[in-house]
Amino acid sequence: MVKACVSPDISSKSKLKKHYFCRMESMPHILGFDQWTHHHKDMMLISGPCSAESELQLRATATALVGNVKLDVLRAGVWKPRTRPHAFEGHGEKALQWLCNIKKEMQIPIAVEVAQPEHIELALKYNIDILWVGARTTVNPFSVQALADALQGTQAAVLVKNPTHPEIGLWIGALERFYAAGIKQLMAVHRGFHSYRPSVYRNIPLWEIPIELKRRFPKLPILVDPSHICGKRDTIAAIAQQAMDLGMDGLMIESHYQPHTALTDAQQQLRPEDLNQLITSLKIRRNHIDLDTDYLAQMRLQIDKLDNELIQLLAQRLKIVEDIGRYKQTHSIPVYQVERWRHIIQHRLEEGKNQGVEEEFLLKLLQLIHKASIQRQTKL
Ligand code: PEP
Ligand code: MN
């Protein structure tokens, strides 16, 4: 018979650093959470193996991490969502007991993945501090709601990974379901998005999505999981640095005392000493600048001015587009003329090249402008 963990609830002590998490004070105007507040130091670090494989593996990895790396939370998957059957699916409750022992010995908060209400019940029974919802679960609102219902009335801390495909609404929707269930300690985890196209990444980062999430909820902490973005060890440091440069709030990185023997995600787990090296070489720029005197502020003023000019020019352009539209209408000329469009693209891209503007970016911009112009003329 396995004994439930009776270690002291260190989540209620300073160890868990609750200030990392969002707290919403009042109902939001649209989505149910616009009153996030959180305070963080420079960043939060969650690390540990992809899967809890044995008590020895957990203890060896955790000892090295707690000894060397500034670790905030130890992670380990005990129920593993595998893409294909017949792979290692985790040790379940048995592994919770191992984690519970390690938590007690090392006084480190523990995070595990939960995908079903029964997982939550067991994780809480073993005094697990943080529950994370994996990408394959976030994608399904029924599953997320079942988890949120199971968490109702608890004080759990929950991390929500992005869904496997790039749909920000599902990610927000999952956060919203947990918030509505009374979960006040929430964070998002960016772990990249599946792409059918070949890529150097296992899951492409599409940074615009976490950036947009931060724009909408500036106080929602977002951690980045470079391990699942990269899929391989060699690009993890670069993605971790990019996460810091983009103002993300922390990292979840998989580590294993012997990565080559790992039962899951062997290619992407780091040895604790390599993680340590990665973390110590990260450049974290978090200094708040005095916007009145700072050089950046001066440059930003110029950017603001240029952006306003761009908008005014676009408005002027659309006005002329409308006049042309009316002319086309009275003279029965079709709205879209392929030759004119080809001419525009060719000449604008040439000019872009002369001015050092990236072709791919300019092409996308011109396509957007063209689409808006066609819409204006069609409306007439
Ligand atoms: C994991 O963190 O081990 C995991 C399965 O992650 P994801 O849900 O991001 O694939
Ligand atoms: Mn993994």
Compute the number of strand runs: 10
Largest sheet: 8 strands, parallel, barrel
Which geometry do the CA atoms define? elongated
Distance between the termini: 76 Å
* Class inferred from helices and paired strands: alpha/beta
Strand adjacency order, main sheet? 3-4-5-6-7-8-9-10
Whole-number mean pLDDT: 88
Instruction: Give every kind of bound small molecule, once each.
Output: phosphoenolpyruvate, manganese (II) ion
Proportion of beta-strand residues: 5-15%
Radius of gyration: 25 Å
Order of helices and strands: EEEHEHEHEHHEHEHEHHEHHHH
Helicity, as a percent range = 40-55%
How many helical stretches?
13
Q: Please mark out the parts with pLDDT under 50 across 5 or more consecutive residues, or reply none.
A: 6-15, 23-40
Question: What labels would you give this structure?
Answer:
single chain; 380 residues; alpha/beta; 8-stranded parallel barrel; 13 helices; 10% strand; binds phosphoenolpyruvate; binds manganese (II) ion
What would your notes on this structure say?
- The protein has 380 residues and is α/β, with parallel strands linked by helices.
- The chain contains 13 helices and 10 strands.
- The chain has helices spanning 55-68, 93-106, 117-125, 135-138, 141-151, 168-180, 208-216, 226-230, 236-245, 272-281, 295-330, 338-355, 359-379, and strands spanning 23-24, 36-37, 44-48, 73-75, 110-113, 130-133, 157-161, 185-190, 222-224, 250-254.
- Strands 3-4-5-6-7-8-9-10 form an 8-stranded parallel barrel, surrounded by 5 helices. The chain has a two-stranded antiparallel ribbon with strand order 1-2.
- The longest helix is centred in the last third of the chain and has 36 residues, at 295-330.
- Phosphoenolpyruvate (PEP) is lined by residues 50, 77, 81, 134-136, 161, 191, 225, 228.
